[in-house]
Amino acid sequence: MQAPCGGEGQCGKCLVKVREGVEEPTAAERELLGEARLAEGWRLACQARVAGEATVEVPASSLVAEHRIMSEGVAREVPPEPNVRKVALRLARPSVDDPRADLNRVMEALGGGVRPPRRVPALRSAPGVVRASGFQVTAVVAGDRLVALEQGDTRGELYGLAVDIGTTTVVAYLCHLAGAGVKVVEVASDLNSQAQFGDDVISRIGMANTSEKALAELQHAVVEVINDLIERVIQEAGIRAEAIYEIAVVGNTCMSHLFLGVPPAGLGSVPFVPSFRGAQYVRAAELGIKVNPEAGVYVTPNIGGFVGADTVGVILASELDVSDGLRVAVDIGTNGEIVVAREGELYACSTAAGPAFEGAKISQGMRAAVGAIDSVEIGEEVRCHVIGEASPQGLCGSGLVDAVAELVRVGAVTEAGRMVRREEAPGLPEKVARRLIENENGIEFVLAWPEEGYAGEAVKLTARDVRETQLAKGAIYAGMELMLEELGAEPLDIQELLLAGAFGNYIKRESALAIGLIPSLPVERIRSVGNAAGVGARLVLSSVAERRRAEEIARRVKHVTLSEREGFYDRFADAMMLRPLPV
Amino acid sequence: MQAPCGGEGQCGKCLVKVREGVEEPTAAERELLGEARLAEGWRLACQARVAGEATVEVPASSLVAEHRIMSEGVAREVPPEPNVRKVALRLARPSVDDPRADLNRVMEALGGGVRPPRRVPALRSAPGVVRASGFQVTAVVAGDRLVALEQGDTRGELYGLAVDIGTTTVVAYLCHLAGAGVKVVEVASDLNSQAQFGDDVISRIGMANTSEKALAELQHAVVEVINDLIERVIQEAGIRAEAIYEIAVVGNTCMSHLFLGVPPAGLGSVPFVPSFRGAQYVRAAELGIKVNPEAGVYVTPNIGGFVGADTVGVILASELDVSDGLRVAVDIGTNGEIVVAREGELYACSTAAGPAFEGAKISQGMRAAVGAIDSVEIGEEVRCHVIGEASPQGLCGSGLVDAVAELVRVGAVTEAGRMVRREEAPGLPEKVARRLIENENGIEFVLAWPEEGYAGEAVKLTARDVRETQLAKGAIYAGMELMLEELGAEPLDIQELLLAGAFGNYIKRESALAIGLIPSLPVERIRSVGNAAGVGARLVLSSVAERRRAEEIARRVKHVTLSEREGFYDRFADAMMLRPLPV
Question: Which of A317, B148, B273, B399 has its CA 20 to 30 A from that of B238?
Answer without folding.
Answer: B148
